[in-house]
Write a structure and sequence with these properties.
heterodimer; A: 2 domains; 77% helix; globular; B: alpha/beta
């Protein structure tokens, strides 16, 4: 078996049968979700077609500026997604902290992963840079979102305890220590759990893709192990930076709790 | 010890001049919502004035580090929050926050006796009543040995007999150790019996001040 079976347009069209089945089910069960199912299927199709053509162009004419530009675009989109999710609950300084921690955490891990672990040549090789950046930035975005949610909840539900701690002469850092610790836990546990089930419960996407493309399973596994560790590092690093700087934005310079 | 000069806090407090003397017992009295608690919070820097200056030992409080200040001027709030764990954890927690040495169980038991809380150190705090929590919180700040105590209705949840005993103990401790005590109280009897100075607060303003010799007879 050499290479991969090319799918024709008609073969891909056959896969839409699954959408028809889902539409049939929701209709007979009277679940009002037909519009969303059609919209999401169409969006997914169009977005992937567009990305496919863009990637064909980028891979054919590799350019460091284009690679860097795409990474920045991904970062910006990830940060925007986090802001949108929490809307008005984020203060200006906390937004700055989220942006900084996403950029610093993901870029540090991405560069280490590509230049020290995989050692790509040239350094900006888009077929490595872009998918791996996608995985690292995407997972970090999920981690930070969980972290921001847990930190906001902690600072709201445990406000009385934080205030009592300040009253008893605690520094803001000591007063928020429990919240910071449980937030780190909440943000990093999904990544750790996914590592536990990996290879047994499911075969991860990147590994599956490489095997389908004809790579030896051992090579695919080596990549998958490395990227999982890279993702773990990136999620942990972004969340730690976010927490170390972020908790302070809940206090003013007089070490008093800001109104939420 | 404290001097308020043209202090305003939002539209809650308006105090052109207020002085709290060092080494004395001062009580703040007034109806609920009159701003007494806010005045205590301004004194331990849990709040900062929106206008004016508060002097602490003749230094502008705005220039003093808030955390250092709160370790010298300790406030007991009306509904003190309890931390997870047992009575021992809750007695030790403040000392841990202040990075001070943790005393042995004998000292902790002595404190419980002082605040009339007859419970083992291992009892979980969830089972305590409101009054017991208030006394535990009082015991927790007595361990700090600060310069000044700011107590917000320290006996609100206690029966008359316990109230009398607790106030007697606190005021005695303050006098014996030459500390300063500022206490918000609803009880005119307590204010009259123990205070060197009684300050009446109404609508965020000082509406009366009586010294030791001018008290009601």
């Amino acid at each position: 078996m050499n290479g991969i079976i090319d799918l024709t347009v008609w073969q891909v069209a056959l896969a839409y049968l699954f959408v028809l089945i889902v539409l049939f089910i929701v209709r007979i069960r009277n679940i009002n979700r037909e519009k969303e199912i059609i919209l999401s299927s169409v969006r997914m199709t169009l977005q992937l077609i567009l990305v496919g053509y863009i990637l064909v162009y980028i891979f054919r004419y590799p350019n460091p500026l284009v690679t860097v530009g795409i990474i920045l675009l991904m970062e910006a989109f990830a940060v925007y997604t986090i802001f949108k999710k929490f809307k008005a609950k984020l203060t200006r300084p906390f937004k700055n902290v989220i942006t900084l921690s996403m950029a610093a955490g993901t870029l540090a891990c991405l560069l280490y992963f590509l230049l020290a672990v995989v050692r790509v040549e040239p350094w900006y090789a888009p077929q490595y840079f872009i998918p791996i950046a996608g995985m690292i930035i995407g997972n970090s975005m999920t981690g930070i979102s969980l972290g921001v949610k847990s930190l906001l909840e902690g600072m709201t539900t445990q406000k009385a305890l934080v205030e009592e701690a300040l009253n008893l002469g605690a520094t803001p850092r000591a007063a928020s220590r429990n919240i910071i610790d449980s937030t780190f836990d909440a943000a990093i546990m999904p990544t750790i759990n996914s590592m536990i089930g990996m290879g047994i419960v499911f075969l991860p996407g990147m590994m599956t893709g490489q095997i389908l493309a004809g790579a030896a399973p051992t090579t695919a596994i080596a990549y998958q192990i490395a990227i999982m560790l890279g993702i773990l590092g990136a999620v942990a690093l972004t969340v730690i930076i976010m927490l170390q700087l972020g908790y302070r934005t809940f206090f003013n310079k007089e070490d008093q709790l800001n109104d939420l | 010890m404290f001097e308020f000069i043209d202090v305003k806090f939002k539209d809650i407090i308006d105090l052109p001049a207020l002085c709290i003397e060092k080494g004395k017992i001062t009580t703040l009295v007034g109806t609920s919502g009159s701003g007494k608690t806010t005045i205590l919070k301004l004194m331990n820097k849990m709040l900062s004035p929106t206008q004016g200056v508060i002097l602490f030992n003749r230094t502008n409080l705005g220039l003093i580090n808030s955390v250092t200040h709160r370790r010298q001027v300790t406030m007991l709030s009306q509904n003190p929050a309890m931390f997870e764990g047992n009575i021992r954890d809750n007695l030790q927690v403040g000392l841990k926050f202040q990075e001070k040495d943790i005393p042995g169980d004998n000292v902790l038991k002595g404190i419980l006796e002082q605040v009339k809380l007859n419970k083992p150190l291992d009892s979980p705090v969830n089972n305590l009543s409101g009054g017991e929590k208030q006394r535990l919180a009082l015991g927790r700040i007595l361990l700090f040995n600060p310069e000044a105590y700011l107590l917000d209705e320290p006996s609100a949840a206690l029966d008359d007999q316990t109230e009398e005993a607790i106030i007697e103990m606190v005021t005695g401790h303050v006098k014996d150790n030459n500390k300063t005590l500022v206490m918000v109280t609803h009880s005119k009897a307590i204010a009259a019996k123990y205070a060197d100075t009684i300050i009446e607060i109404a609508g965020g303003r000082c509406s009366g001040r009586r010294g030791h010799d001018e008290r009601d007879h």
